[in-house]
Design a protein that fits this description.
There is one protein chain. By secondary structure, the chain is of the alpha/beta class. It folds into two domains: 211 residues, Rossmann fold (3-Layer(aba) Sandwich); 66 residues, Orthogonal Bundle (Helicase, Ruva Protein, domain 3). The chain is built from 13 helices and nine strands.
Length: 308
Amino acid sequence: MNNTRGQDSIIGQTQETADAEAKVTSPSSLREMLRARGIHPRRAQGQHFLVDENILNKILKGASLGKNDLVIDIGAGPGALSLVMAKQVAAVIAIEQDRGLAAFLREQKDLRGLTNITVIEGDVRRLDLETLWSKGKIRGHNVKVVANLPYYLTTPLLYKLLQGDNRPAMLVIMVQLEAARRMLAEPGSKDYGALSLLCQYYCKGRLLFKVSRHVFYPQPEVDSAVILLETLPRPSVSVPDEALFWQIVRAAFQKRRKTILNALTGLGEFDREDWEQMLGQAGINSARRGETLSLQEFAKLGEIFYNK
């Protein structure tokens, strides 16, 4: 009996050692570790896990991580980013909605003896993120978001991350390639829209590199890209009322095929004549479409709308 328990203990230790040494960036290792725990990736929830160390290292390099950083990993999954970043920064907050994956990540951090990772299980859309990183700022840390964002959450998450009172200093995020194009699009292009203005208003952004769909398990149907967004100390243009400014932006892009005059008529209880006057005052031809207006032109129109 005692000998059997001893053998079981040795087997358990061997399994733990194997799990600790196994790489979550190895497709075969990750597949087996997840399968052993009854975890099956769900594509509908954007569960496509990075399994390429070269891409992982490029993301970390782009984030310029330092010992004073507090990093938020959203949609942390099995921890490809979190487990490596923890060795380079002050602390990592890993957010994962899936219960099985959150438990797996806790297990992996414990096996590696990483005490500076906090795993939060929950829907990021319902979490008070500002409180998380405001505490980090109080401790004197640089707050960064470094994450492989679930595709279907990209736009609402960016609004949540950027429109609060406390914004992270930097975001290095992997998103669907189409979303990356929209984030960095210039006026007049087919990808230009409200998301472009959101990023340009709050950040200085650039494309770091594109990512093939073949470096994920399971493989998504589209390619991705890694974007660097450095948040500005203050918005890139000055507006007297942000709520009114974003009202105009939303109205302009909700009716993309209409002229800016038609898109805005009725907004704020102003009629067509009022908006034609305001557009003229802003130096904007009323026959233009909203997707041709620059951030500065939207800001000018927002100021006139506010004063009116």
